[in-house]
Amino acid sequence: MTTTTPSRGRRRAPTRIRRAAGRAAALQKPRVILAGLLLLALTSVMLLDGYLRAEVGGDQRVRTGASAGKVPDKILDGGPILTFRGGQATTVSVPDKTIALTFDDGPNPTWTPQVLAILKKYDIPATFFVVGSMVSRYPGIVADMVEQGNEVGIHTFTHVDLSYQSDARVNREMQQTQLALAGAAGITTTLFRAPYSSETDAIDNYSWPVYQKLGEDGYTSVFVDTDSDDWKRPGVSKIIKWATPEDGEGASVLFHDAGGERSQTIKALPTYIEKMQAKGYTFTTISGVLQKEEAAGGQQAGSGQQAGAGAAASSQQPGGAQPGGPGQQGPNGQAGAAGTGSGISALQAAHREATGATLYEGKALIGAVAVAEWAVPVLSVGLMVVGVAVLGRFGMMLLLARRHYRQRNKRRFSWGPPVHEPVSVIVPAYNEKECIANTLKSLAQSTHPIEIIVVDDGSTDNTSEIARDAAHELGMTNVRVIRQENAGKPAALNNGVRSASYDIVVMMDGDTVFEPDTVRHLVQPFADPEVGAVAGNAKVGNRNTVIGAWQHIEYVMGFNLDRRMYDLLRCMPTIPGAIGAFRRQAVLQVGGMSEDTLAEDTDITIAMHRAGWRVVYQEHARAWTEAPGSLKQLWSQRYRWSYGTMQALWKHRKSLTDKGPSGRFGRVGMPLVVIFQIVTPVFAPLIDVFTVYSMIFIDFKAALLAWLAVLGVQLLCAAYAFRLDREQYRYLLMMPLQQLAYRQMMYLVLIHSCITAMTGGRLRWQKLKRTGEVGTPAGVS
After folding, report:
1. 279 near 150, Cβ under 8 Å?
2. Which stretches does the entry tag as region Disordered (predicted)?
3. Helix residue ranges per DSSP H, 128-245
4. Which positions are annotated as active-site residues?
5. % of the chain surpassing 70 pLDDT
6. Residue 4, CA distances (Å) to 1, 8, 9, 12 in order
7. Are 290 and 311 in contact (CB under 8 A)?
8. What's 738's DSSP letter?
9. What gap in Å lies between CA 339 and CA 309, rounded to an integer?
10. pLDDT, averaged across the chain
11. What is the three-class DSSP state of 152?
12. Contacts of 510 (CB under 8 A, 6+ apart)
């Protein structure tokens, strides 16, 4: 038995184009992933910033008037410091003639540094109960606070009433604040003060379990017994009066260094300190109070437990880590407390040195917040710029489109003597068996004398044979079919230009059909010897599907309204491949259709401008084209268009310095295209992201009204564009859905193209699947 192996020599090697296409395809997935990651990063930054500002996950509920029947009386009647040593709830009072000065709600970049300067001037310490989100935003202030000898405690991360929160939320509030402290000052703390708390007699049945749980985790909860009520801004004298203890008693005194306008606090503080010192008071921290209580023999320290560390924490550190001795670390990467060789003073005994994962995670949190703090304002400014640019563009389009319409539709308007000379129509085709017959059938009805050159670019579906048969059946003797090796659309067009018999060449796609008068209207501007090229009015033929209707709106509003504006400004950026006419001389002058970019139509249009030719828009020359019928094909087409446009703009970047009439595109057209077709659309998703963010986390009604207002402006522009093109308004019913889905896809396509351009990727001309459903214009509704 013999086995025959097929000869390897019979296997055809892939062509250069296929190899390039394969490489491009291999690069697309990573770029799509990168685009998705950029969008995810933007969303994450916004959510982080919103979380820091209590816009995301914020909870403004504050419990009042709840029963305290489950809270032990000794706690309700006890001192302002609540500990759980040995698992037993115990309160500690501040010794006489002693003030534990405490500040809530900071740090604040305006008021906290002023408070610290006053404390430094009088050489007294204080305890700051900081909000984790503020710590992460202003880490330098907390570092200065700790370095100056002050003590810090936790005031939760987002300043929420913990009695309403789940255990998971409580743990998250504490852990995130610990990480913020670790990243800012390299420490964690065992002190805690609940937001909206006051004296111990305000503990109720809902908050008591929270304090018990935190006590089990090693936290010391701190309350007040003298409140300055400075947040009410009652005046300096009343703040001082209300903050003064009675009859020489000690007190945990509450001030605020954030949470509002604190100028009265700043004015009252020096006078208050001098007054208390004159009365013989000393100032200390919460740990200092506990140290005095220990020294006075208020409670016996546990066996082996040092005074400073034992006073500040219970038998466990926050998170369940056992207190560490000298050189020891708990599971959370926290080193031993004061008095254990850590270098932390006795007045900061509640601090733990952050090491290991805790320290690095804290640094990462501070870094992420710094990015968010920088990025979100920049994005906000970008949003304003984009919004102004978009509205400005709409206004400019409406004004110039109106002027263009009135100018070109005047009875006396004329390009010059009527153009009756025959023209050459070039139809590049690659695997267009579904459409080529309809294309030729439409050209057979042309009211202007034409020759038709079908250039088959190496089709594998008998396109050339179908074209010949269709021409024969229609009795068309003016059709030539040229077959060439597959070389791409630019090469096919150049072949057609070289083979053209007449001075004016019309270029169209193989899936496009013309109306009988299309060619006649299209060539009339050539009566003006300055005109080198004419852009026609491309219409979507298969518009009765959702995707088709979306593209129909885009063609009428985005493309044709734009072309009216660019025509008046004499800087038309693109002649559509579906319908365009050129002077053959001008095409040859600029070197023909270039293969340097994927947008050969944009490339040659800019080249015509730079060669000194005028490019105009002829609205009455209509062509009906088959738009992509699936999202995948649409993505492929628009990806090629946007990337090709970027290539063309980069290729002709020197047009910015061109002089005279040939430099008009560089001076006017290039900036407009870059701003309105690349930069603005790239940043336009900010509008949608901010809108969704505002609807969910800030003010749904206001955000919805703003979105509807923008939609209303777009509907107005679209309706006017439809009126100018005499289109049916019923398709505008699809516009709200287009804004929610289709527009987002176009943004992603453009972002994808930008990433491809920045990473140096290259694409080849791509073939879309056609159905041939676009027939003669009469059949299009």
Report:
1. no
2. 297-341
3. 132-137, 139-147, 167-185, 208-216, 236-242
4. 104, 256
5. 82
6. 10, 12, 14, 19
7. yes
8. I
9. 7
10. 83
11. strand
12. 427, 428, 429, 430, 432, 435, 436, 439, 454, 463
